[in-house]
Amino acid sequence: MRAATAVAGALACAAAAMAAAAFVVGDDEGERAASAPEPAPASAAARDGKAVWVANGCGSCHTFLPANARATFGPNLAATLEGMPASYIRESIVNPGAVAAAGWEGGMMPEDFGARIRPEELDALVEFIRSGVRD
Description:
- There is one protein chain.
- It contains 7 helices and 2 strands.
- By secondary structure, the protein is mainly alpha-helical.
- It has one domain (2-134): Cytochrome Bc1 Complex, Chain D, domain 2.
- It has a two-stranded antiparallel ribbon.
- Helix 3 packs across helix 7 (119-134).
- The radius of gyration is 16 Å and the shape is globular.
């Protein structure tokens, strides 16, 4: 029983550490970020999409500045999705093996987001990503 409790505690700590790492901001961007103009207020769908982003741990793998994410395990979404339609972004989430971003291997992203994310949440996530790619 004691070993199971220790394992559960270790897993909880690891999950918390991964979540915290997804939101860490590098100091070397601080001065440039302070002088950048304020972005336009996000639409309700984009705000909801950011919540879906956070809930699914997207920032633990991807760089995406609108989500304050600077991970490097997966591609930088603003760079790889620029100019792509919503249908391409959706397909990249629900069927990530269909097309790998240039310079990235396929098979790295979980393939069950289509089953894990409800359709309306997926719509909001796609809108959040599209709004950040267009800016």
